[in-house]
Amino acid sequence: MGFASSLGNDISPQARYASSVSEPTADVVVIGAGIVGASCAYRLAERGLSVRILEAAPIPAGGSTGRSAAGVRVQFSQATNILLSWKSIQAYREMPEAAYTQLGYLLLVPVAEWPAHRKSVALQRDLGVPVEVLPLEAAQRVVEFVPDGLAGATYGPADGVVDPHGITLGYLRRARELGAHLHLETELLQARALSGGWRLETSRGGFSAGCVLNAAGAWAGEVGRRAGLEIPVQPARRMVYATGPLPWPHRYPLTIDLDSGFWFRSEGARLIFGRSNPADEGFVEGMDWDWLEPTLEVGLARFPWLEQAALDRKASWWGYYEVTPDHNPILGWMPGVEGWANACGFSGHGVQQAAMVGVLMAEEIADGRARSLEIGPLRYERFLQRQAVLERNIV
């Protein structure tokens, strides 16, 4: 029996507890007003639950969501990730605020990774996802590159870019139209489980709820600690460098050299590009200009024509990934903890999967179990049972 089913025609235990205190109450409190939290809040409100969204920042989508490179792709190595992204892309196609643009993703694959990559492509195709295998000569007609060390390329024609900020605001607007409340500049300080619900202390006073959904992005681990829970999500800083306008017309797909991790794509008349620094962990703020040289070193080796582009420092930005040990999100109920659920740890692909995650988390909380997609491989229990499987296609 799910949380919503327990409401019935009588007052639920959660509602009985909530009505006994003079403070804001809700069936579900969502922590975080980024794209994942907004999607979940909308779908929960759609199911008839009372929802409050707590956001520590003064604006929604001010963290990882607003600083994303905005790409959406289906080229993952695990079925759950493939389907989460594919179903989300289909939702974004129908959402005006998403501004979905079918730019495509081009992955350049080194020889050593080619057999495993081909297996991933076979899985993607088995799941009904459009992915093309390209010989290097064909890929070079899309983007010029030095082919040394590469075996082939794959291209996702339905992959592309979206407007994460627009999506977040769209979901929040829909949620509020259904009665949800958004509380900005409301930082969670402590959460305590009580009989039939949760008591939350925040920078704006107390809240009570039957259920808490942790969608706090890079801060999800800290949110868990403030509730006495260990949630393995760590922040990792990532750079997005921008060029000035290029002197030629272009519409480059989001192109990733899997050998080095260097990526770029067209952004209007300019390019944006980057490369993850595995040593850049924790809540470190600001641009890392020292990382620009090692990023460009591998980028120019593969794409020598980039030398013609000028860097625009003012247009560059940084943001956080929310990283888990296996680079997969944590979805679903927290084992052994009544009324606490997680939707966090997306390791760089939260924007890509947020639409479907909202549907699944609404099912998880309202019905007791997500049913539209099997999320077993993404549940917290995988860490307890040592069953975590690394997602290979993370950049």
TrEMBL record:
Name of the gene this protein is made from: dauA
GO cellular component terms listed in the entry, alphabetical order: cytoplasm
PANTHER family: FAD-DEPENDENT OXIDOREDUCTASE DOMAIN-CONTAINING PROTEIN 1, SARCOSINE DEHYDROGENASE-RELATED
UniProt cross-references to SUPFAM superfamilies, sorted A to Z: FAD/NAD(P)-binding domain
Residue ranges of every copy of the FAD dependent oxidoreductase domain listed in the record: 27-363
Top-level enzyme category: oxidoreductase
InterPro entries referenced in this protein's UniProt entry, alphabetically: FAD-dep_OxRdtase (IPR006076), FAD/NAD-bd_sf (IPR036188)
Native organism taxonomy: Bacteria, Thermotogati, Deinococcota, Deinococci, Thermales
Name of the protein described by the UniProt record: FAD-dependent catabolic D-arginine dehydrogenase DauA
Keywords assigned by UniProt, alphabetized: Oxidoreductase
Pfam families, per the entry: DAO
Signal peptide (UniProt feature, chain positions): none
EC number: 1.4.99.6
Gene3D superfamilies reported in the protein's UniProt record: D-Amino Acid Oxidase, subunit A, domain 2, FAD/NAD(P)-binding domain
Gene Ontology molecular functions: oxidoreductase activity
